[in-house]
Amino acid sequence: MDRPRITIFDTTLRDGEQSPGCSMNVREKLHLAQQLDRLGVDVIEAGFPIASDGDFEAVQRIAATVRRPIIAGLARACSGDVDRAWQALQGAARPRIHVFLATSDIHLKYKLRITREQCLEQAREAVRHAKSLCADVEFSPEDATRTDVAFLCQVVEAVIAAGATTVNIPDTVGYSMPEEYGQLIRTLREKVAGIDKVTISTHCHNDLGLAVANSLAGVQQGARQVECTINGIGERAGNASLEEIVMAMRVRPDRYPYETAVASEQLYASSQTLAEITRVPVQPNKAITGRNAFAHEAGIHQDGMLKNPLTYEIMTPQSVGVPDSRLVLGKHSGRHALALRCEQLGHQFERRELDEIYRRFVVLADRIKKVQDSHLLELIQDVMRGDVSKGHVSSSDVAGSPGKKFPPAAATLPFPRAASAAAGSNSNELHFAQAASSDGQAETRPGCPPPTNWFGGVPFTDHHSEQEDYLWGV
Ligand code: KIV
Ligand code: ZN
Fold it and tell me: 435 C-alpha to center of ligand 2: Å?
């Protein structure tokens, strides 16, 4: 039997961008939207067009450029907002207007200063107006989880009658518990007339660390769209993390027998792209995409991993796009290896651009021996900004110097990826790596596992990049 399909609605560019330090300019938003497209999300909420000219332009540019996913623009429940959102979405292949209005008594009394009756009428009117412009209309009763349930049902029924095609149930302040949130979705399904004609959506904030659990509980009770963000960024403690939602369903189909269209191998690149753009690093222990997510340090774990990775890994790094552990980038690496790593980090380059990156990479690698993803991303940023005049990396750019541009290379070394790696080279594997130690040699002490890179790869002593350098015309 086919598994129900869950629509992944990415709001990194709207709710995510509202988190402190995560604002992005139009170019950066477009770049991220293109990566979200590669990731396979179904809906990209590209911004809140009335909020600023920059937001308007970002929605407009993304709508004109990214053609596969639905592009949504947010609007408060008033005609000015709805019109502006629609204007920004004009060029979209598949536009959606997302209207929201708070429904909890706290918000009605203190924020909006309107009665429940006024709220009901305003929601109905705004959705009717949006529907007159666009076939795809989503409505969100903000602070739904603190709204009187009977009133919430009344509002949801009214907006469905007015033409909403998706009804989103935000846990705006991250207050709900999983059973409670699931129960709310169930109640709506039982009590609201017309609910079976629309998609129910979850939108959970992470104030109590329950955003993912609440979203999954909502799905179990019939929600078929999940709103989430890359790296879980968003207002305050953030939103439900996209990568965690997707991988929970993929790793535990026995509990969550649902499908998404997400290409999980693009999760790491998406996470890195966002971190690079916002310069907000991913916390090391972040599930799925943190740098420790596949690192094993404890002796017992290392022993288990050597015997069989299944002992301590519930998914493979490859399944979420964590770069090939053997591909350690150093000064002997070739353009092919560099191009592949850039691609894994979400950047595809033409030959000329790659030449420039390669030229700078070699200079850097000469100084810091092992080039980490963070270093490479810095370098890519410089080249993309057209900042190629420097053409060199000064000593003040590297680790240990005040105002350093490039962070120090990994201090702790995680675990070798697989027993075969520890045992030696495997003819099926890439042999681009260089040694990890400062003198360019792999260090192996008796009784110790060989040195590894961030993602657990064992560096090889036999690098063979000359051949590919030749092919790439070095
Ligand atoms: O958290 C929230 O309530 C929102 C709405 C605008 C959907 O972000
Ligand atoms: Zn939100």
Answer: 46
